Amino acid sequence: MAVLTGPEKPSLLQVAPRLLQILRVLARHKVLGALFGKKHLPPPKVVRKTFEELGVTFLKFGQVLAMRRELLPAAYIAELKLLHDELPAMDFKAVCSTVEARLGAPLTELFSSFGETPLAAATIAQVHEATMKDGRHVAVKVQRPGLEPVISRDIAVLTYLAALGERLDPRVRPFDLPSAVREFATSLHRELDFTREAASIALFRAALDDVPEVWIPGVVYERSNRTVLTIEFSPGERVDLYGKSHPEAMPGAISTLVELMLHTIFEEGIFHADPHPGNVFVLPDGRLSLIDFGNTGELDEPMRESLILLLDAVVKNDAKAATEAYLEMIPASETVDRGSLVVDIRAALYDINRSDQAHVSIGDAFESLLRAGTRNGVHNPPEFLLLARTFVILESMSHQLAPDHDYMKSFREEISRLTEQHFSLERIEEKTTKLARELERLTDDGPGDVRRVLRHIADGDLGRVQAPALEALGIRVSHDLGRLSSAIAFGALVMGGSLLILAGPGWHHVLGEVMVVTGFGGMVLIPVGGWLRSRARR
């Protein structure tokens, strides 16, 4: 059964039973007063304990809020970070029955050995060490039973409360709470679907196959499904524990993490969104091993390109370029005060512009952008929030494991490499070719598509009166569209050729001259062709 995100507008009757339970917990912790207008907020520790008592959904929601520094005061963020993602372990008999029911066979037939003591027990699942019948050493992640109906019920309550909050207090509308709840529900849905995590593992293994410093454990598909995930066992030691006995290895480990993070983000469009020490191991041979891919992010190509420009601007302390790149990343909205947004971003990055490059914090820069955007009505994309959290975690781990290491050196070097690659001749040629193909398709298909649409209009009541005029209009529009598409295509040739010429002598220069001449020649022929056709019609 899939996790339900709740109805778009759940009624009070639907959520009343669970809502009453929540209100009792809030009253017991004296949090209700703040919700009903009292000026004094409850202490941060009380808020954390309230989330913990409300159960798995609110525990996860509190962890999400801990990432939203643009929404909450620093004291509450610090306290919410302490929310434990651990629960008492399931009884081993319950684990056995759960695995057998979900994999459809007795545990003794599925595995030759299965550890009774879990390696870890979190809110969603717990992990056990096991051995396959063929001798493979594996780790089995078993989802706790009964989570989906509980989470679905709580999501419906959160949806109702978000809508109610916007109606009662206009000040919260810029935060777009209903969208935040929908994104949270989607995130939980992904985390509960282990087949999605298995697919993410396969993507990361393929993406990092050529990186010798990293190993990703593979999925044992015959012992995996939506609620049970079996992967190769990682025989390493947690990176923070390994660092205590091998501090000299930590600078290299941090540099490797930075490089692989940027590699997967910009070259593959995926990233591990929870790279804390518990998910990073050091193998006996010194390689790093990443585990737990339940929380990952994806970026499309336009966002990756804008992100490269944004990070390059932050690293170079260029506030103006950072502002422009951020504006390209956010979704278009009429409610965004773009002028005020630019001013706020410049102010937010002022301290970074003044600081030494060695002390630039990418995580702080992201959070500054998020705060500036939220103040001006921006609904930051979920991927952007995940990225901010990822860089904050990475920087925190760097300071913890290698406090004297300048991890920004690795960051700057990798960003410089990616920027050069982004503007390489090969990439320019690839984009020019792609643009030419798209414009050629538009030129070929556009006129016919316009004529077909106008014929459909002409078949209607209005069209029967004005069909001849509409058909003539269609022909004229088709010709104009064809000329416009051709002009754009020839203009693209001129721009692409100019860039190749600027690259310097060599075959690039010759190819650029050919493209420029062809582009200008085509643009000259367009009006000549139109003049000849107009004379022929006379």
Give an account of the 3D structure.
The protein has 538 residues and is of the alpha+beta class. It folds into four domains: 12-85 and 149-189, no CATH class; 88-143 and 193-233, Phosphorylase Kinase, domain 1, CATH 3.30.200; 238-423, no CATH class; 425-537, no CATH class. It is 64% helix and 7% strand. It has helices at 12-28, 32-35, 44-54, 56-65, 74-80, 92-103, 107-110, 147-168, 177-192, 194-207, 239-245, 250-268, 301-315, 319-329, 338-348, 350-354, 362-375, 382-401, 407-422, 425-458, 461-502, 507-537; strands spanning 113-114, 120-121, 125-131, 137-143, 214-215, 228-232, 237-238, 270-272, 280-282, 288-290, 296-298. Strands 1, 2, 3, 4 and 6 form a five-stranded antiparallel beta sheet that branches. The protein has a four-stranded mixed beta sheet with strand order 5-10-9-7. Helix 17 (362-375) packs antiparallel against helix 18 (382-401). It is globular, with a radius of gyration of 29 Å. 30% of the residues are buried.
Give the topology.
Blueprint lengths: L11 H17 L3 H4 L8 H11 L1 H10 L8 H7 L11 H12 L3 H4 L2 E2 L5 E2 L3 E7 L5 E7 L3 H22 L8 H16 L1 H14 L6 E2 L12 E5 L4 E2 H7 L4 H19 L1 E3 L7 E3 L5 E3 L5 E3 L2 H15 L3 H11 L8 H11 L1 H5 L7 H14 L6 H20 L5 H16 L2 H34 L2 H42 L4 H31 L1
Parallel strand pairs: 5-10
Antiparallel strand pairs: 1-3, 2-3, 3-4, 4-6, 7-9, 8-11, 9-10
Helix pairs in contact: 1-8, 3-4, 3-5, 8-9, 12-18, 12-19, 13-14, 13-19, 14-15, 15-17, 17-18, 20-21, 21-22
